[in-house]
Design brief:
By secondary structure, the chain is α+β, with helices and mostly antiparallel strands. The protein has a domain at 2-114: Alpha-Beta Barrel (TIM Barrel), CATH 3.20.20. The protein has helices at residues 2-15, 23-29, 45-50, 74-84, 90-99, 102-107, 135-138; strands spanning 124-127, 142-147, 150-154. A hairpin with a 2-residue loop joins strand 2 and strand 3. It is globular.
Length: 164
């Protein structure tokens, strides 16, 4: 019931407990034995936010019996969560992106070393975009992967116009 859920979320926030939805796993496993009105549920992310609960999102299984899909890409997970959690406005998409970046760093305890700034760890993914707020929807190429300050991978995409 909504009132029970609100009390539980307030208790989570008061206790400093973070919640990490796993939308791909939840959608795949939920309602497996239902024969009609099959349930497909994900965590109520907007309600978590409204109650001040720290939330990230992730995948805990990739291409196994629990989640036979995916590439372990946090941006794919963010898009799936946005689609299934009815998180579609610009503010929602910005917040969903935070869930797989800054908020995820807070959840796993590395927020002090996170971000692009002097003194932070030089582990990052450089995306081929200039519009931060469009990242979740545009799914830009991962132009460079940097580990310990060195580029360890890069993606180059070429398009060719065939009609003049």
């Amino acid at each position: 019931e909504p009132a029970d859920r609100a009390r539980a979320m307030a208790a989570l926030a008061d206790a400093g407990v973070a919640v990490v939805p796993l939308p791909a796993t939840d959608l795949h496993l939920g309602g497996r034995r239902d024969t009609r009105a099959v349930r497909r549920g994900v965590a109520p992310v907007r309600e978590l936010w409204d109650h001040g609960v720290l939330a990230a999102c992730s995948s805990n299984n990739i291409r196994n019996a629990f989640t036979p899909f995916g590439r372990a890409d946090p941006l794919d997970t963010a898009l799936l969560l946005a689609q299934t959690g009815h998180l579609s406005g610009p503010d929602d998409l910005h917040r969903v992106l935070r869930m797989v970046t800054h908020d995820a760093a807070r959840v796993v305890g590395v927020a002090d070393d996170y971000g692009v700034r002097p003194g932070a760890r030089a582990d990052l993914v450089v995306l081929d975009t200039q519009v931060y707020d469009d990242i979740v929807l545009d799914r830009p190429e991962r132009a460079h992967v940097v580990k310990a300050g060195k580029v360890v991978a890069r993606t180059v995409r070429t398009s060719e116009l065939l009609v003049h």
